């Protein structure tokens, strides 16, 4: 019995870790490429969760809810970068912290105004509501197992994007010498917007996926944001691989 309990808790730690990775990966990309401390990243996690809950309630489709979460968070992230963040790159970190903290308040109060103060609930798809028996006779919820698989798949996709594509080359170059890649003809403004939207979309996707096993409520992103910063410190700023290792360590420890 104790061995089964230990195995289940290890799987829970993995599930928590890979969801935390989705949050931390976007944050470490933004911090690594732009040198920006973005405290509003947790608010984009919340935006994804609320978008998913709303679309799922209207359509009954969990897949459409995930697409809506990704699109809403990425869109919100792009708008934030264009109208707010772009003015902060040349400022010091204190100004960035103050401005993005203000964004937390704006997102929280705006969401409360739009949806009210009561939590929303995102139902797990019926096909994933049961349990799966893993090798060794370990029963485990099918949805949580899907979260582990999806999180690891996203991690593999991000590694491929960063290591094997032209966009990944530009992102890595931007981390090391943004003036040089601008001089070589890369539109640094578009690159920053794209990276910010990508990071925001990952946070929104994580919010939607976790929202199905927790409540969707105002302020749900702030506790996760703190853990995401811990992950970045452990894994190293700008490192996708480090973010994955750090997130798994934090998830399993927690």
At a glance:
The protein is mostly helical and 254 residues long.
Number of strands: 2
Q: Estimate percent helicity.
A: over 70%
Shape verdict: globular
> What is the typical, i.e. mean, pLDDT?
90
Q: Which structural class best describes the helix and strand composition?
A: mainly alpha
Strand order of the largest sheet: 1-2
Q: What Rg is obtained from the alpha carbons, in whole angstroms?
A: 18 Å
Contiguous runs where pLDDT drops below 50 for at least 5 residues: none
Would you list the SSEs in sequence order as H and E? HHHHEEHHHHHH
| Beginning-to-end CA distance, first to last residue | 21 Å
The oligomeric status of these chains comes to single chain
* Helix segment tally: 10
Strand percentage:
under 5%
State the major sheet. Answer: 2 strands, antiparallel
Describe the fold and architecture.
- By secondary structure, the chain is mostly helical.
- It is built from ten helices and two strands; from the N terminus they run H-H-H-H-E-E-H-H-H-H-H-H.
- Strands 1-2 form a two-stranded antiparallel ribbon.
- Helix 3 packs antiparallel against helix 8 and helix 5 packs across helix 6.
- It starts with a helix and ends with a helix.
List the keywords.
single chain; 254 residues; mainly alpha; two-stranded antiparallel sheet; 10 helices; globular
Please outline the helices and strands.
Elements: H1 2-34, H2 41-59, H3 62-83, H4 93-115, E1 131-134, E2 138-141, H5 142-164, H6 166-176, H7 178-183, H8 188-211, H9 221-235, H10 240-253
Antiparallel strand pairs: 1-2
């Amino acid at each position: 019995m104790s061995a089964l309990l230990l195995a289940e808790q290890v799987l829970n730690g993995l599930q928590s870790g890979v969801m935390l990775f989705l949050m931390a990966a976007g944050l470490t990309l933004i911090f690594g490429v732009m040198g920006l401390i973005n405290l509003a990243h947790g608010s984009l996690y919340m935006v994804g969760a609320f978008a998913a809950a709303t679309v799922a309630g209207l359509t009954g489709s969990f897949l459409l809810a995930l697409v809506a979460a990704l699109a809403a968070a990425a869109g919100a992230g792009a708008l934030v970068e264009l109208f707010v963040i772009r003015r902060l790159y040349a400022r010091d970190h204190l100004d960035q912290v103050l401005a993005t903290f203000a964004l937390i308040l704006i997102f929280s109060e705006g969401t409360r105004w739009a949806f009210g103060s009561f939590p929303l609930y995102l139902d797990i798809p019926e096909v994933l509501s049961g349990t799966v028996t893993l090798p060794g006779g370990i029963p485990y919820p099918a949805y949580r197992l899907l979260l582990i698989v999806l999180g690891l798949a996203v991690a593999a996709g991000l590694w491929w994007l960063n290591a094997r594509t032209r966009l990944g080359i530009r992102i890595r170059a931007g981390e090391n010498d943004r003036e040089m890649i601008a001089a070589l003809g890369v539109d640094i403004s578009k690159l920053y917007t794209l990276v910010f939207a990508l990071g925001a979309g990952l946070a929104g996707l994580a919010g939607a996926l976790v929202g199905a096993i927790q409540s969707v409520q105002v302020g749900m992103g702030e506790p996760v944001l703190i853990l995401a910063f811990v992950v970045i410190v452990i894994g190293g700023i700008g490192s996708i691989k480090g973010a994955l290792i750090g997130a798994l360590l934090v998830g399993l420890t927690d």
